[in-house]
Design goal:
- By secondary structure, this protein is mainly α.
- The chain folds into two domains: about 200 residues, Rossmann fold (3-Layer(aba) Sandwich); about 90 residues, Tyrosyl-Transfer RNA Synthetase (Orthogonal Bundle), CATH 1.10.240.10.
- The protein is built from 13 helices and five strands.
- The strands form two sheets. It has a three-stranded parallel β-sheet.
- The protein is globular and about 70 Å long.
- It binds adenosine monophosphate (AMP).
């Protein structure tokens, strides 16, 4: 069976963007792939984290994965830092990647242009990400558009390594949704909806109070034209709401434009709010049953055993190829 690998950082609060861009894909692909979905806690510490909160957030993400429909019977869910082979392989890959290519990563460049004191981890984390993926010989990596460049780097590292040391890694493909790969902030539709944003009014969090969710959607920034038409350049606000509605109802953009051609923005926003609230109500009721149960630990134990077995085999194969240790 082909394999899928992906993960989410346990920082901030998971958003509707994380759901539409990533988790929804995990659940759909899960039917046809052997799935490894992890909590990317090592990626979280590229920025300072409060240890107590980080621990809570790790558990929260596992609860959300399960509440969104991932099932420990057919998905291996684990915490990245518990599987030590990710970092071992990451070091080997660091020694097979170049400063030049790392310096071209736009997320690093953006942060470096804004902040003076960034960690070395911010510079090298795309290599850890390559390790997270290559160590499982993943066929596909479902993700939002912001990770596209990092998946391309992963592919380049895999191809280079295979050329140098013989066939070692599968070269993975990204799976980026056609619509919904970048859900935007409702208050500023030119900015991505992010989980650690300063502008919570523009972000829908998966565990948000449902009344607040309706309020946030009803006060989403749009234009003054009042026609429900998808046009990313001229109408980014309403296009974002159309994308959200399309992702949650599986209706095409064209069908939505036809359906709402006689409606105003208020009517449409109210329908979008109904769909989002229906989704979040379901996620939250499942989450509340799961979060304090044994299911979390049982899921993580099972996920760790399987992921560690595969990762260890790949790590030892690399040690052997590179002449390291006694392997
Ligand atoms: P992160 O929140 O950076 O850990 O990202 C976890 C996953 O969610 C990645 O696959 C991202 O591409 C995806 N993602 C994050 N924010 C959004 C968004 N606003 N729209 C679509 N996908 C997103």
């Amino acid at each position: 069976m082909k394999r899928m690998v992906s993960g989410i950082k346990p920082t901030g609060n998971l958003t509707l963007g994380n759901y539409i861009g990533a988790i929804k894909q995990f659940v759909e692909l899960n039917k046809n792939y052997e799935s490894f979905i992890f909590v990317a806690d090592l990626h979280a510490i590229t920025l300072p984290q409060e240890p107590k909160i980080l621990k809570e957030k790790i558990k929260e993400i596992v609860g959300i994965y399960l509440a969104c429909g991932l099932d420990s019977n057919d998905t291996y869910i684990f915490i990245q830092s518990e599987n030590i082979y990710h970092t071992l392989v990451s070091w080997i890959l660091e020694c097979n990647s170049y400063m030049g290519e790392m310096s071209r990563m736009t997320q690093y460049k953006d942060l470096a242009s804004k902040e003076k004191n960034i960690t070395t981890g911010i510079f090298t984390y795309p290599i850890l990400m390559a390790s997270d993926i290559l160590i499982y010989d993943a066929d596909v990596v479902p993700t939002g558009i912001d990770q596209k460049q990092h998946i391309e780097l992963t592919r380049n590292i895999a191809i280079r390594f295979n050329n140098r040391y013989g066939d070692t890694f599968k070269v993975p493909d990204e799976v980026i949704p056609e619509f919904g790969s970048k859900i935007m902030n409702l208050q500023n539709p030119l900015d991505k909806m992010g989980k650690s944003d300063d502008n919570p009014k523009g972000n829908i969090y998966l565990l948000d109070d449902l009344k607040q969710v309706r309020k946030k959607i009803m006060s989403a920034v749009t234009d003054s034209d009042n026609t429900i038409k998808y046009d990313l350049d001229k109408k980014p606000g309403i296009s974002n709401l159309i994308t959200i509605y399309s992702s949650l109802t599986n209706k095409s953009i064209k069908k939505i434009e036809d359906e709402f051609k006689n409606s105003n923005y208020g009517d449409f926003k109210s329908k979008v709010a109904d769909e989002v609230i229906k989704l979040l109500e379901d996620i939250q009721s499942k989450y509340n049953n799961i979060i304090n149960s044994n299911i979390i630990d049982e899921t993580l134990d099972k996920g760790l055993i399987k992921s560690e077995k595969i990762a260890k085999e790949k790590a030892y194969q690399l040690l052997n190829k590179l002449g390291l240790g006694r392997y």
